[in-house]
From TrEMBL, chain A:
One of its GO terms (molecular function) is transmembrane transporter activity. This is Branched-chain amino acid ABC transporter permease. GO terms for cellular component: plasma membrane. Keywords: Amino-acid transport, Cell membrane, Membrane, Transmembrane, Transmembrane helix, Transport. Signal peptide: none annotated. It holds the Pfam family BPD_transp_2. One of its GO terms (biological process) is amino acid transport. The chain crosses the membrane at residues 6-29, 36-56, 62-85, 97-115, 142-161, 190-210, 222-249, 256-278. It is a multi-pass membrane protein. It is found in: Cell membrane.
UniProtKB/TrEMBL annotation, chain B:
It holds the Pfam family Peripla_BP_6. The keyword Signal applies. Belongs to the leucine-binding protein family. It comes from the Bacteria. InterPro entries: BCAA_transport, Leu-bd, Peripla_BP_I. Residues 38-380 form the Leucine-binding protein domain. This is ABC transporter substrate-binding protein. SUPFAM superfamilies: Periplasmic binding protein-like I. Keywords: Amino-acid transport, Signal, Transport. Residues 1-34 form the signal peptide.
Length: 291, 413
């Protein structure tokens, strides 16, 4: 097995992991801050892909789709929070879980009615078609772009949370909402924004995945399972955990694919089982954290 | 029961008819059966999941076959009814639904199933209950002696037929061939078919990668496939797996290095990812609407389908629904009813031409002997219209030579 092949494989794993990270991030932020297990996350990922495709064909440019779809679907997420989720805060964790589970069915069925259940082609943006010669082999330009974009989004997100006043409020709100309210912060608005952000990230994941996979109403269900595995491995609610675990899962899948391709999908569940045995709270999770 | 009560007034009568119809709906299987006039065909198919697009086309075409017979007055004056059930692409679900169709709905025969594992489950149930089953799944394990019964018929092409036809068109002696294969019965059978054809032609196998069924990402298999440096890459998977695998192979620049070949090229998947991705991909098919320039039957089938479906064209897997149900109904017509033994006899003797030319069920294993198409996906600029997807490279006439021999399948000869 030569080295260049292993490096190419590693790169494929990172590209795969990048999509996992961006999707798991939204799931883990919403859980970490709001205590809501969002089962509609996969469906919103799918809606994001359709919205991106629709906006791209409307404007004639992939880039508008990439920019506008997460914002639009994020706003839709805020509407969901405002109309549905908000009423369930303070109740048991099952209530929002069941609500979002039902919501995912409605969203998938809605897309089937509007766009049909066959897949729709999502062309790669013309600037990113083709492969880049890395010296050791060829790698799809689009996948390199996805890796870079996810890195930028992570950086912006980290800077916002760690270095800004908004970030401070968000972090404090996650730790103790009551004190925040006493201090005069409208915690309801913070939660609204967080849910919107989580959904927007799901939509971004969907738009990014669009040109790589076929776009169809069921594309979210597999992603949801993957995102949950990543979230559990990383630790529920941990942003760093989602990033590390996402890349870990992507790279594991890729490396296992090299030696035992049949096992490529199972490896992420095996990884989850091992992590749960050793560290039940996940790699970066806090012990005893409940919703 | 309101049905048998006195009905002095018209208004009351209509009310009662309505009521009894309502009651009949509620207690459907029991009351519906009392008359035992209609002929019921069970039709399990994966309406949900990654093969949903193909399954829906099957239903449309099966309904068309039923409609055409009913329009002509049914079979011996009896109307035909199609009972479609979602098998969810799951063998257990399919077995349960099939058992229900037989026990509760009292179907006279079963047609359907798309996945090989599901077809095995359906066959097991129908075989045990002595009900005719016409399979439209591209797997022929049920034709092998251990799973076969006299009630088992296989209308679809089988892996051996399509891979041989595709290999004949694309492989030459000394070529290097690599395989990306879905790790379940369909993939394994297609791989077996390709390797057999490859050996006969004298092409070399340079490697095989088995991928998990239903994977969303195939990128992790590409670097290794490319490092094998083959001339031809055979991708043996189905439904959305095919669309995703080909798309991602193209993203990695696979087509610059090698030709992509599939055992069965799928109409719906070509639509799902677009012409640029599929351009130049070669695969086998049971049917393509463009056959209408060569075949009067195809033209008639297209026209009937268009009329019933708002101008849409029938697809490859749709055609199976039509020919599967159509051949069964033709046999029932010939047998003069639904008596299982008589229909089995009639199916064995049947010469039918429903979509593309004459077909018949081979006596020993009940495999439908039929023509095989080899198609090449057209590039965008060569397409005359939205539906002009493929060029027909070959239309191999049906013959026993295409099939594994009966003794190979374990049947007494």
């Amino acid at each position: 097995m030569d080295l260049s092949l292993i490096i190419m494989q590693l790169l494929s794993g990172i590209a795969l992991g990048a999509v996992l990270v961006i999707t798991a991030l939204g799931l883990t932020i919403v859980f970490g801050m709001l205590g809501v297990v969002n089962f509609a996350h996969g469906a919103l990922f799918m809606i994001g892909a359709y919205a991106g495709l629709y906006l791209a064909s409307l404007t004639g440019s992939f880039w508008w789709g990439l920019l506008l779809a997460p914002i639009l679907i994020g706003a839709f997420g805020m509407l969901i929070e405002f109309v549905l989720i908000r009423r369930l805060y303070g109740r048991s964790i099952d209530d929002p879980l069941l609500l979002t589970f039902g919501l995912s069915y409605i969203l998938v069925e809605g897309v089937r009615i509007v766009f049909g259940s066959d897949g729709i082609p999502f062309p790669t943006p013309p600037q990113l078609i083709g492969v880049v010669d890395l010296g050791i082999g060829f790698f799809p330009r689009y996948r390199l772009f996805v890796i870079a974009l996810v890195a930028v989004v992570l950086l912006v997100l980290w800077l916002t949370l760690e270095k800004t006043r908004v970030g401070l409020i968000v972090r404090a709100g996650a730790r103790d909402p009551t004190i925040m309210q006493v201090l005069g912060v409208d915690i309801g608005r913070v939660w609204l924004a967080i849910f919107g952000l989580g959904v927007g990230l799901a939509a971004l994941g969907g738009v990014l995945a669009g040109p790589m996979r076929s776009v169809n109403p069921e594309m979210g269900s597999l992603v949801l399972a993957e995102a949950f595995v990543v979230t559990v491995i990383g630790g529920l609610g941990s942003i760093v955990g989602a990033v590390v675990a996402g890349l870990m899962v992507g790279i594991s899948i890729s490396m296992v694919a090299l030696f035992a391709p049949e096992m490529a999908t199972i490896v992420m569940f095996a990884l989850m089982a091992v992590v749960l045995l050793i560290r039940p709270q996940g790699l970066f999770g806090v012990r005893g954290r409940t919703a | 029961m309101p049905k048998s009560g006195p009905t002095p007034k018209i208004i009351r009568r209509t009310a009662l008819v309505g009521l009894s119809a309502g009651a009949a709906l509620l207690a459907m299987p029991r009351l519906g059966r009392a008359a035992d006039e209609t002929i019921r065909i069970g039709f399990p198919t994966p309406l949900t999941g990654p093969f949903a697009a193909e399954a829906r086309d099957q239903v449309k075409c099966a309904e068309l076959a039923v409609k055409l017979v009913n329009d002509k007055g049914g079979i011996g004056g009896r109307k035909v009814e199609l009972l479609v059930r979602d098998d969810k692409l799951n063998a257990g679900e399919a077995a349960t639904r099939t058992l229900e169709l037989i026990e509760k709905d009292k179907v006279h025969a079963v047609v359907g199933a798309l996945s090989s594992a599901v077809q095995l489950a359906v066959n097991e149930v129908t075989r045990a209950r002595g009900v005719i089953y016409v399979s439209i799944s591209q797997s022929d394990t049920i034709n092998e002696a251990k799973d076969f019964s006299k009630y088992t018929f296989h209308e679809a092409l089988n892996p051996h037929m399509t891979t041989a036809a595709v290999a004949r068109q694309t492989l030459k002696k000394g070529m290097k061939v690599a395989h990306l294969v879905a790790d379940y019965a369909y993939g394994h059978e297609m791989l077996r078919g390709f390797k057999r054809a490859q050996a006969a032609i004298g092409a070399d196998n340079v490697g095989e990668i088995l991928h998990p069924f239903g994977a969303a990402d195939y990128s992790t298999f590409m670097p290794r496939l490319m490092s094998m440096r083959p001339d031809v890459l055979c991708i043996s998977n189905f439904g959305r797996d095919q669309a995703n695998a080909i798309k991602q192979a193209v993203d990695f620049g696979v087509k610059q290095q090698m030709k992509i070949v599939v055992p069965v090229i799928l109409h719906n998947q070509r639509l799902a990812v677009g012409p640029d991705v599929f351009e130049g991909v070669v695969g086998g098919a049971n049917y393509y609407w463009g056959l209408e320039t060569q075949s009067k039957t195809a033209a008639a089938f297209n026209a009937a389908f268009k009329a019933a479906n708002g101008g849409a064209i029938p697809t490859d897997y749709g055609a199976y629904g039509y020919s599967g149900v159509g051949s069964l109904l033709a046999a029932m017509q010939a047998a003069g009813g639904t008596d299982t033994d008589k229909v089995v006899d009639a199916l064995e003797k049947l010469q039918y031409d429903l979509t593309k030319g004459l077909q018949h069920y081979r006596k020993c294993d009940h495999q439908s002997v039929q023509s095989v198409l080899v198609l090449e996906s057209k590039k965008k600029s060569a397409m005359a219209g939205d539906n002009d997807l493929f060029a027909i490279l070959a239309n191999d006439a049906g013959s026993d030579d295409m099939l594994r021999t009966c003794s190979e399948l374990g049947h007494a000869t």
